Amino acid sequence: MKILEEKILSEGRALGEDILKVDSFINHQVDPVLMQQIGEEFAAHFKDKGVTKVATIESSGIPPALMTAISLNVPLIILKKQPSKVLNDNLYQTAVTSFTKGTTYELTLSRQFVSEEDHVLIIDDFLANGEAGTGAIRLFRKAHATVAGIGILIEKSFQPGREKLMEQGIEVYSLARIAKLEKGHIEFISED
Amino acid sequence: MKILEEKILSEGRALGEDILKVDSFINHQVDPVLMQQIGEEFAAHFKDKGVTKVATIESSGIPPALMTAISLNVPLIILKKQPSKVLNDNLYQTAVTSFTKGTTYELTLSRQFVSEEDHVLIIDDFLANGEAGTGAIRLFRKAHATVAGIGILIEKSFQPGREKLMEQGIEVYSLARIAKLEKGHIEFISED
Fold this sequence. Notes:
The structure is a homodimer. Chain A is an alpha/beta fold.
């Protein structure tokens, strides 16, 4: 998505080979017009897939996921990060370990908001190692729901997340795919 | 706001005198159409106040705050909850203790996203004791920004949050004001 790539080039900051800061328009300050455009783009791409719900993981994925849900006219589900497992028959939970942050949390979903009739589009801001996405898929499979695909704003294509998700038979649609980061330098995968 | 009150009556669950669960349309599953209507309502109410940015605290306030930012055509700032104080000259931080949850966190804002020119509208889902709202105001005052007002989806009017905020000279605009909760019973303050 041209407009997102341009925004990343003008406002994103590559702090090293792994870290891209986009907190002026995605993570901390949010550009609402860009989020609308992103939501429309995801909705256009997945419009014939029979999506019944959009889901995301709190909290940076919420703005683009909400705009996608609005464009597709379906509810949004915000998967919660709990610090530890809760014994509760009304919840689905699965442990997710973030390599990037070195933390583990329980991804949590109330049973009442998902059923085997649901076909869920998962939206997230970043795809790196794919732990969060894999955890979300595991959670929806526990509920016997199906996954329509994963929409990502920024994919670090030099990390294994995309492959890991595709190996599970999931379509990954990333709006900006980063081939390489260096301090002060950002390189995209050419779409041609 | 009639439509929000009706939704609270039909889908909200009063679990006792203090707890109202609205996780089918605000906190866990999100109703995007309702969020659009809420954003338009806040924007209409504050449209002549010279709002330069909308702010909220992660994560339940993000959907209504984003829709308000879209309607007002200004950026959104998501204030972060950090577990502990970070020594960093680029951040404003202030400790917030949640009576409801019995936890303390450092509300965090990067200096680069706020200036003394900013007039900020704060949006949040619930107002109870007013700790989060007071913390957000403190943070923007540290930055010498001004606060245009606070927009709340659901105010527990039997708790002291509204008074605490108004004592600081802040306008509080709540879309639904709850006079009383009992297990299975929800009573609004009549607007007449």
